[in-house]
Design brief:
The complex is a heterodimer of chains A (about 260) and B (about 180). Chain A has helices at about 5-15, 20-30, 35-50, 60-85, 90-110, 115-135, 135-140, 145-150, 240-255; strands spanning about 140, 175-180, 185-195, 195-205, 210-220, 220-230, 230-235. By secondary structure, chain A is of the alpha+beta class. A 7-stranded antiparallel sheet of chain A has the order 1-2-3-4-7-6-5, with helices on both faces. Chain B has 2 domains: about 5-80, RNA polymerase sigma factor, region 2, helix turn helix motif (Rna Polymerase Sigma Factor, Chain: A, Orthogonal Bundle), CATH 1.10.1740; about 100-175, Orthogonal Bundle (Arc Repressor Mutant, subunit A), CATH 1.10.10. Chain B is elongated and about 65 Å long. Classes of the chains: A alpha+beta (about 260), B mainly alpha (about 180). At the A-B interface, helix 1, helix 3 and helix 4 of A face helix 1, helix 2, helix 3, helix 6 and helix 7 of B.
């Protein structure tokens, strides 16, 4: 082994980092070479100098206190951040997204939700049924005279509902009452066809353009609604669809 | 991991190495208050990264963080010291007579040795401190200083040689004065 190789290996040898075989080669060389042996002795001397001269800087006691307190502080604020829920942020975001998508789909697909008209039809049927339960519910003003019924609404509504009697055509006017439907006060006119009662609900339409009759059936009741002359009309009765349609035509022609 | 448990296991695993942390920081910064600041900062960093520690060697893990924190600190405060070029290439050993230095080392008192180590370039100082004072293996030093094993070996050899040269020059001025 050459001096150069030996002196490269002397440090790992002295540090106990050299494998046994190479360590033996280094020892063998140093037995024969005074220069390399002195490099090694220097190394050993340096080490003991380090050991004896207390070069080690131990931490001052105050530093440990300082670190402990700053760690407690850090742990506390970390716990604070946790309980604030940053950990759940991704889950929360995912949930919010799912809810948003569900809402968008619900809005976009009409068959998944009851339409405004569906809800209104339900409300109207309920109102019709309730009006039939007691005779006193049926009308607020009892009169077959349209000139009595129409003025009765004055001051009770912010619009003047058209009131016509169709006694001549077999649909006599019985009376009228005030109702609250579709989030507003509306006029309810009561007509009769033989033993059947017809409720005709009237309130101003948001759109002035007329729309044709739409017929629906709910809980055995026939409903017809249309818009005409800036008014919404809903007619509901247990009367058969043909006769109810006849009634609706009379109302529309009268305007 | 709950915050309380985390703090408890961190203190158990990492606080016992406070002296090692301070020793390294003190030798790198060469100044008491700076070393304290660096160590405190390093402990806070270590606490934040504690989730990534899997209990291998707490001392080497912490000292790696202390070293990085020290370098960051020096980048901010003493950037000139960091930018001194260091040549890690193995040099041919010249056949100069080293015997007088051997004598000199044996006589070197603590004050002389301390001063000589402080004069070493940062990169030499750190491997020497880790080896001679922390008595770490080359492998552990490689982890702490983020160096290849071979570089640890050659750098240590050069650090010791440089240290002896510094001691020799001090000795000479002492003799002359």
């Amino acid at each position: 082994m050459s001096c150069q190789t030996t002196q490269e290996l002397i440090h790992p040898y002295a540090d106990g980092e050299l494998d046994l075989a190479r360590g033996l080669e280094v020892e063998q060389h140093m037995d024969e070479c005074q220069v390399c042996a002195s490099v090694y002795r220097n190394q050993i001397a340096l080490r003991s100098a380090f050991k004896n001269s207390s070069l080690y800087h131990s931490a001052p006691a105050r530093l440990e206190k300082r670190i402990r307190s700053s760690l407690h502080h850090e742990a506390k604020s970390e716990a604070g951040r946790r309980s604030f829920g940053w950990r759940w942020l991704p889950a929360g975001a995912a949930l919010a997204f799912v809810l948003l998508m569900a809402f968008v789909i619900w809005r976009a697909v009409p068959s998944l939700r009851p339409s405004g008209d569906d809800l209104l039809a339900q409300e109207i049927v309920s109102n019709h049924v309730r009006s039939l339960q007691l005779e006193t519910h049926r009308t607020d003003v009892i009169s077959s005279d349209q000139h009595t019924v129409k003025p009765w609404f004055d001051g009770k509504l912010d619009f003047a509902p058209p009131v016509k009697d169709f006694s001549g055509q077999g649909f006599p006017l019985i009376g009228g009452r005030l109702e609250y439907l579709n989030n507003r006060a509306v006029a309810a006119l009561v007509y009769q066809r033989q033993k059947h009662y017809i409720n005709l609900y009237i309130w101003p339409a948001e759109q002035s353009n007329a729309s044709g009759e739409v017929a629906t059936k709910r809980q055995g009741y026939n409903l017809l609604h249309w818009t005409n002359s800036g008014m919404n009309y809903w007619a509901v009765s247990d009367l058969n669809g043909v006769e109810l349609h006849e009634f609706a035509r009379l109302v529309q022609e009268a305007q | 991991m709950q915050a309380r448990n985390k703090l408890a296991s961190f203190e158990k695993a990492v606080l016992p190495h406070l002296d090692a942390a301070y020793n390294l920081a003190r030798w790198l910064t060469r100044n008491d208050p700076d070393a304290e600041d660096v160590v405190q900062e390093a402990y806070l960093r270590a606490f934040r990264f504690f989730g990534g520690f899997h209990g291998e060697n707490g001392r080497a893990w912490l000292l790696g963080i202390v070293r990085n924190t020290s370098y960051t600190w020096m980048q901010r405060n003493r950037s000139t010291e960091l930018n001194m070029p260091l040549d890690d290439e193995p040099h041919e050993v010249k056949d100069d007579n080293l015997n007088p230095e051997e004598l000199l080392l044996q006589k070197a008192d603590a004050q002389m040795l301390r001063q000589a180590v402080e004069e070493l370039p940062l990169e030499f100082r750190e491997v020497l401190v880790l080896r001679e004072l922390e008595e770490m293996s080359y492998k552990q030093i490689a982890v702490v200083a983020d160096l290849p094993l071979g570089t640890v070996m050659s750098r240590l050899a050069r650090a010791r040689k440089r240290l002896q040269q510094i001691l020799a020059s001090h000795r000479q001025t002492e003799v002359l004065s």
